[in-house]
Design a protein that fits this description.
The complex is a heterodimer.
Chain A lengths: L4 E12 L6 H15 L11 E5 L3 H4 L4 H8 L7 E4 L5 H15 L4 E9 L5 H9 L13 H17 L3 H15 L6 H6 L6 H6 L2 E3 L2 E2 L8 E10 H7 L4 E10 L18 H5 L19 H14 L4 H4 L2 E3 L5 H10 L8 H6 L16 H4 L4 H16 L3 H5 L11 E8 L4 E9 L1
Helix pairs in contact in A: 1-3, 4-17, 7-14
Chain B lengths: L16 H7 L7 E9 L7 E9 L14 H8 L4 E4 L6 E2 L17 E4 L3 E10 L12 E8 L6 E5 L12 E6 L10 E5 L12 H22 L10
Parallel strand pairs in B: 8-10
Antiparallel strand pairs in B: 1-2, 3-4, 3-5, 6-7, 6-9, 7-8, 9-10
The chains are: A alpha/beta, B alpha+beta.
Chain lengths: 429, 235
């Protein structure tokens, strides 16, 4: 297992609603950008295999869409398959590619992600996304993901006391970051002016405590990233970024099943003990419905592989899976940026803001850069790659959100209501 | 034919017009638009493009089996609430599972037990937007209810309560609707006790904001659906 895996390039075709180009055309744009930035890649000869990432056959109105894309991009007859795991799809696709190279089966693997969500109206898109929840139990009650996640956040608020103002602060941070990102939907639709907490609290209620500006956008877009082995990495670039840790984890399909879960009981005793008296302690106090066990498991595995024992100190940036702002706050806890129940303190102290100790979502991420599901985490990985290689200022046309001397970044992605999660650690040369 | 059964024991047959409906559309375009829109992979590099947009409908009708959980949903039609109990670890599941998930129990088959129509709120959300099928009933409150004695929580709606008066720990009674159809929406809950204001999780300011939100959502639903609107929250 001594083989090292590198990122040698990436591209994004901007996120917006709608994009009128076809899925394969957006993918082509992302790949073209990558090839312009990493001219050493002899495309398509140097591509040994491709992993495709897209979430919904319903939204695309096309099954096996990757067959269209694969031949469109001139990649026949190379091996390729599609990965699908809800919101975790793109992070899983990258981890698949990582494992391909780690195993020695392939030397260079391209990961291509896309989603087109604009062909149906918003309630219908919500319906088709909610088809990824249990359609016999959760879906018919009318929750859909905004409702499930809101209920999870209400539980966390009840136990640990963060407020709607805390959630709004996260929205402000991410939207204002996105105003600099020329690939972002918020900048396309809103422009470059900043918003404040009041704008978030005045936006339309979606599912209490979440308002429109606390929620992921519905988006079209594409992204790609190229992974290689060590030998090839040095051929393509002087500045490869290494993947030094990956982790995967799972939790229940139905969020309501997390209260007495025998599989989690006793796994994290310290977190089980951080449980306030306001509630009767369930049999499995961590994660129960307040936290995300799958994220903890995946994060710990990635930290172990990368040799990280103090993520807040050892990471320079993080791109998290943030479909709703409470999720980001809870992830701070599950990824051990702070203790359980202290996510609100990180928000209030500005730790994850631009200029803070660990900037999170510099791209703007799901609620502001946009969330074309199959592309989102790949685009976030590309943004981390740009930050670690010093390319951000050039790609964004501004130094305003370019980190200087960033060494290590974390990408976290998950699907469902945290039903499965993946974490990847990236390190600059 | 999907699910052509050997023997139908009992049924409420569906209107066969749904078969016709499921064939409607058939992926054939019903309209088109030639439009102008941007093209380009980055915001600072956009140019003008033209696109043909077609409208293409297709319906479908699923014949869905509830499998080994069928007794649970058949119970709704008979207005009885069942849980699944593991004979080894004694855990009672509602939502039920036909096989126990406890690692100690080695995927043991569970047994059916009748459950009391009461429990408590584990968590909730006040819905002000939704997926297509539920828009007409906005605003509404979803809850996850721990039915008494159960180790999982059941998604249901809560009625006859103001949204700010719901909190984790609130005791509830469960009820069946008058004409159950064999789905999770056949069951709902109402408070079994007077909500205790000291346990509300919303601030006074937030409650006032929520009241305004509820009015706005209700007006939006009525504007959109007219007499078909069925808002579930009365303020």
């Amino acid at each position: 297992m001594a083989r090292r895996v590198a990122v040698v390039g990436g591209g994004i075709s901007r996120f917006d609603l709608p994009r009128y180009e076809l899925q394969e055309e957006m993918c082509a744009e992302a790949i073209h950008e990558m090839l312009m930035d990493t001219p050493g890649i002899d495309y398509p000869r140097d591509v040994d295999a491709v992993i495709y990432s897209y979430f919904s056959d319903h939204l695309e109105e096309q099954l096996c869409f990757h067959w269209i894309i694969h031949d469109y991009l001139g990649l026949l007859p190379k091996p390729a398959y599609r990965v699908e795991s809800g919101g975790a799809t793109p992070v899983d696709a990258i981890i698949n590619a990582f494992m391909f190279i780690k195993s020695g089966i392939f030397n260079n693997v391209l990961v291509v992600g896309f989603e087109k969500m604009s062909e149906l109206d918003t309630p219908k898109v919500n319906e088709f996304i909610a088809a990824a929840s249990d359609t016999d139990f959760d879906f018919p009650v009318g929750g859909y993901y905004s409702g499930y996640y809101a209920a999870l956040e209400v539980r966390h608020m009840f136990l640990y006391g963060e407020t709607v103002e805390d959630l709004a602060s996260i929205a402000v941070k991410n939207h204002n970051n996105a105003t600099f990102n020329p690939y972002s939907q918020w900048r396309s639709q809103h422009g470059t002016s900043y918003i404040g907490v009041d704008e978030v609290l005045d936006s339309r209620l979606i599912a209490w405590p979440y308002r429109l500006l606390n929620c992921a956008m519905i988006s079209d877009g594409a992204a790609c990233i190229m992974l290689t082995n060590e030998e090839n990495a040095k051929k393509y670039t002087d500045a490869p970024v290494w993947i030094t840790g990956v982790g995967l984890g799972t939790d229940t399909m139905r969020p309501g099943d997390r209260v007495d879960n025998p599989m989690y009981k006793g796994l994290y005793l310290k977190d089980e003990s951080i449980y306030p008296d306001v509630a009767t302690k369930p049999a499995a106090p961590y994660p129960e419905m307040a936290n995300f066990g799958s994220i903890r498991v995946s994060g710990d595995a990635a930290y172990k592989m990368a040799g990280i024992d103090n993520p807040l100190k050892q990471l320079d940036l993080a791109e998290l899976f943030n479909p709703y702002d409470g999720v980001e706050l809870v992830e701070y806890e599950d990824l051990r940026f702070c203790k359980r129940g202290e996510g609100k303190n990180l928000v209030r102290e500005g730790v994850t803001e631009w200029g803070g100790e660990l900037p999170c979502q510099v791209s703007g991420a799901h609620t502001a850069a946009g969330h074309p599901v199959g592309a989102t985490s790949i685009a976030q990985a590309v943004q981390i790659y740009w930050q670690l290689t010093g390319l951000t200022a050039k790609k964004w046309g501004t130094k305003a959100r370019a980190l200087s001397d960033a060494k290590r970044g974390l990408l976290q992605g998950h699907g469902g209501t945290g039903c499965q999660s993946g974490v990847i650690i990236f390190e600059g040369g | 034919m999907a699910y052509r059964p050997r023997k139908i024991l009992k049924s409420r047959e569906y209107n066969r017009e749904w078969n016709e409906w499921a064939l409607k559309g058939n992926w054939s375009p019903v309209g088109w638009r030639w439009i102008e829109g941007p093209t380009g992979y980055r915001l600072d590099q956009l140019s003008k493009g033209n696109y043909l947009i077609i409208q293409r409908p297709h319906g479908s009708l699923y014949h869905h089996s509830y499998g080994l959980l069928s007794k649970f949903f058949k119970g709704f039609i008979e207005k009885k609430l069942y849980g699944a109990k593991c004979p080894r670890c004694k855990a009672v599941f509602c939502p039920p599972r036909a096989h126990c998930w406890n690692p100690e129990c080695k995927v043991q088959r569970t047994e059916w037990v009748e459950l009391p129509m009461k429990g408590e709120v584990f968590t909730f959300s006040v819905m002000a937007f939704s997926a297509t099928p539920f828009l007409k009933t906005l605003p509404f409150i979803i809850t996850y209810i721990r039915v008494e004695g159960c180790c999982t929580t059941l998604p249901t709606r809560i009625l006859q309560v103001n949204p700010w008066e719901v909190y984790p720990g609130l005791k509830v009674n469960l009820h069946f609707i008058d004409n159950p159809k064999g789905e999770i929406m056949d069951i709902y809950c109402t408070p079994a006790e007077k909500p205790d204001p000291s346990k509300f999780i919303m601030s006074k300011e937030e409650i006032e904001r929520l009241k305004e939100d509820m009015k706005k959502v209700k007006n939006w639903v009525i504007r959109k659906f007219g007499s078909e609107a069925q808002p579930s929250i009365e303020i």
